[in-house]
Amino acid sequence: MNEKKLSVIFPGIGYHTDKPLLYFGTKLARSSGYDTVFIGYHDMPQKIRGDMAMMKKAALLAYEQSADQLKSVRFEDYDDVLFIGKSIGTVAMAKYASDNKLNVRQIWYTPVEATFSFASGNTVAFIGDADPWSDVDKVKNIAKDLGIKLYSYPECNHSLECGDVARDLETLSDVMRLSELFIKG
């Protein structure tokens, strides 16, 4: 019997599915037999970094728009559900999974701190230690306390890039290798 598998892709604000982490993460899921649903956001606030009220507003909007787009998805029809998200999308997907008591596996690319408030289930995360959107040391401690495997990349920013193309490609390759291992179980 063939397993029915679904991946749901949650972008960041300005980090869409055509950017490297989500583009290749989606390709990995699809190459492993996952159907794919893409979440999209609209009318998101801009210039939110460092403004906790605006970040909270953006996360709530991302969650509400995600929930609306997932209303017709019958998760119970799938044997394996995988959520892949980036930045603010990790908050939306983790909250959605938690609120709906879904047994899903999650890949978090550069999660923001609020994501960890909704952590549940089988999750792997990736962050740059120069990520200006997160208190990286705090995120590392929270992940450790929650038993979430968190991979950290030296001198990398919120896109897991450091400014050196060769090193950026090495980082991307490593993140995708580890993502593939997680996807394949």
Account of the 3D structure:
It is a single chain. This protein has 185 residues and is α/β, with parallel strands linked by helices. The two termini are 18 Å apart. The mean pLDDT is 93. It has a single domain (5-183), classed as Rossmann fold (3-Layer(aba) Sandwich). Helices cover 39% and strands 18% of the residues. Strand 3, helix 3 (88-99) and strand 4 (105-109) form a beta-alpha-beta unit. It has helices spanning 20-31, 52-69, 88-99, 136-146, 165-183; strands spanning 5-10, 34-38, 80-86, 105-109, 123-128, 149-153. Strands 2-1-3-4-5-6 form a six-stranded parallel sheet, sandwiched between helices.
**Count of folded domains:** 1
Low-confidence stretches: none
The first-to-last residue Cα distance is 18 Å
Give the H and E element order. Answer: EHEHEHEEHEH
Write down the overall geometry.
globular
